[in-house]
Amino acid sequence: MDFAWERLPCRLRRGLLAGGVGRSHLAGLAHAALSSARVPGTDHELAGFLARLGFDVLLAAWEEDPLNGSLAEPLLTLGRDSFSPKLRGALTWLAEQWKPDARADRYLAKGDHERLLDMHSGRAEADPFLLRACVESLLVEGDAGRLPALFGGLERRGWDGPGRFLLDVVRAETRLILRDYSVCGELERLAGELPLPGRLTRLAHCRHGLGEPELALRLWKGVLKAQPWNVNTLLRARDVLLGRDGETAALPGDCSILLYTYEKSDELENCLARLDAAGLDGCHVVALDNASTDATPAVLSRWKSKWGTERISAVRLDVNVGAPAARNWLLAREDVRARPFAAFLDDDALVPEDWLGRLAAAVRSEPGADAWGCKVVDAGRPWVVQNADLHLRPDLGRENRADAGGGQLPALPVCDLQHQGFDLGQFDSLRTCVSVTGCCHLFRTRSLTEQGGFDIRFSPSQFDDLDRDLRVAESGGYAVCQGFLRVEHLKRTGEAARRGASAAGNALGNLVKLRQQHGDRQLEGVAEKLSDLTLQAVRRAERELAEGLGD
Fold first, then answer.
1. Is the Cβ–Cβ distance between 18 and 417 less than 8 Å?
2. Which of 238, 461, 490, 551 could form a disulfide with 541 if both were Cys (CB 3.0 to 4.6 A apart)?
3. Mean pLDDT, to the nearest integer, of 405-432?
4. Other C-beta atoms within 10 Å of 181: how many?
5. Residue 409 pLDDT > 80
6. Strands 371-378 and 479-489, sheet pairing
7. Span 164-188, pLDDT tens digits
8. Which residue pairs from 216-224 have beta carbons closer than 8 angstroms and sit at least 24 positions apart in sequence?
């Protein structure tokens, strides 16, 4: 399973260490590898290695997005002679049928799946571009119950032969995304007909979901022979082998659970009810009400009556001070500072019963980290990942920037792999990263207060948690994501984009501040250190898997 990481150009190595998943991410890395192979003067053996890697990564990008015809033509150009007849036929059919439509792209960006479905219903012929947009929109918008009707009868519209095989792939993968593990037999059939790493990965995920880790590990071992660079598969397989996917622990000290809230009484009620179901395990909840005018005071009063003052304290402010100031206010309390750990939880986050035990297991495995976070998914649509382990972009200083009124919009300095597909367990591992989401994260209280808390210049919200993590990383620290902890978030991904102009303006303003605070030169040093740290973890995982599974 060993992979020659040291032979890779720096940015390509960083990109692959950030993740071996994400359709756009992989397509970009494939381009980087293939371009590096063609650089004049490159050693012949190295050029061949990079060319093969670029092809493998490009194939992985297509497997993440099997109706993406824009990847079919370059794959055929690079590997037509090496493909099986089944794969060559599917890619050829897809390239021929691929007809991009700007109007469909606009509807997809707006979440207007009604218009997408209307467009699709008017098609008499196979249209993979439009079907892809419809499937993605229905999943993102939480209307997955309409997928069977969408798939029904497509064979009569030209989805036959190679097209029928692709349709079967997408239909099976959609069922897997929705956690219908009865699709296992169909996934096995498809992997038999097209034994590519992506098909085996999905079958392994299904086996693991059925409670068959030994079969999953056997499949992951085969995947890693073909994709030794896929750190997501590597780390997940290692953690399943070691039993970390089911591991919980107890924190080595008392913990405060800190919430701040504004005008979200219903969400706060649900959040506290989930905490109650999980059990506080000796933790003390401190809730700060940012001058809410709804039923928030009544909600907190009821929970104070139920739990008692020894389990919950409530603070009410006369004005909404915003997220970073609220966090700092909570951290300034003597009772909070007296407890070794502090967990921040959004007022619309819904934790599972084992949430604190999962975070404690991450603390036990990675005691040197400065923050421990989790995988956050949309409540009601758990296949949509909002956040997981965040890594610095490999193209820092080279990213594209969009013009806006004569100026330039800075790019977020972290990758968005979690938004480039749906949850198939690709983030289910325990791994180091540059940042974790503020929706649910744990700190050592002393470390957090000594590092200066949260910057109020990012008020009222947006990026104050990322700014804090970047400051820590610039001083040599790092975060850890407990990917086996899944927290549901009632605020939907992308909702901010559909809010008013003031909210969008605040987010953009804070992004500008963030990039001014953390320039490319500073982040370049962080990227190098964290890349080395990740590579050490990957090498350990390679050894542990080799010892546990055999070469």
1. yes
2. 238
3. 87
4. 17
5. no
6. parallel
7. 999 999 999 999 999 999 999 999 9
8. 216/240, 217/241, 217/549, 221/545, 221/549, 222/197, 223/197, 224/1, 224/545
Q: How many residues does the chain have?
A: 551
Cis peptide before 66 (omega within 30 of 0): no
CB atoms under 10 Å from CB of 13, counted, come to 19
Can you read off the two tokens belonging to residue 145? 């119950």
- Per-residue pLDDT for 86 more than 60? yes
Q: What is the pLDDT of residue 302?
A: 96
Are 350 and 238 spatial neighbours (Cβ–Cβ below 8 Å)? no
Other beta carbons within 10 angstroms of residue 404's beta carbon come to 9
Q: What is the pTM of this model?
A: 0.93
Place of tokens 């997501």: 232
Residue range 81-102: average pLDDT?
94
What does DSSP say about strands 479-489 and 430-433: parallel, antiparallel, or unpaired?
A: antiparallel
Q: Which two tokens stand for residue 517?
A: 């605070």
Give the whole-angstrom CA distance, residue 389 versus residue 374: 8
Nearest to 487 by CA among 366, 344, 370, 365: 344
Dihedral angle of Cα 298, 300, 301, 304, to the nearest 10 degrees:
160
Cβ atoms of residues 219 and 204 within 8 Å: yes
- Look at residue 437 in the predicted model and tell me its pLDDT: 87
Number of H helices, E strands in the chain: 23, 12
**What is the rounded average pLDDT of the residues 8-31?**
96
Give one DSSP letter per residue of 347-358, joined into a string.
Answer: TTEE--TTHHHH
Which of the four pLDDT bands, split at 50, 70 and 90, describes residue 497? very low
pLDDT value for 498:
37
Two structure tokens written together for 385: 């990942």
pLDDT tens-digit map of 141-161: 989 999 999 998 887 888 988
> Per-residue b/e over 340-372, b at no fewer than 16 CB within 10 Å?
bbbbbbbbbbbbbebbbbbbbbbbebbeebbbb
pLDDT for res 538: 96
The distance from CA 335 to its chain's CA centroid, rounded to whole angstroms, is 34
Quickly tell me which residue has 């990012």 as its tokens: 458
One-character DSSP codes across 108-163? HHHT-HHHHHHHHHT-SS--HHHHHHHHHHHHHTT-GGGHHHHHTTGGGGT--THH
Mean pLDDT of the region 460-489: 93
Contacts with 457 (C-beta within 8 Å, 6 or more apart), sequence order: 324, 513
- Structure tokens of 102? 């700007």
- Name the nearest CA neighbour of 163 among 131, 118, 192: 131
b/e map 279-294, b = 16+ CB within 10 Å: eeeebbbbbbbbebee
pLDDT mean across residues, the chain? 92
> Mean pLDDT throughout 382-404?
78
**Residue 514 in tokens:** 């963030």
On the question of pLDDT at 504 being above 70, the answer is: no
Q: Which two tokens stand for residue 516?
A: 């001014």
Of the chain, the end-to-end C-alpha distance in Å amounts to 7
Rg (alpha carbons) of the chain, rounded to whole number: 24
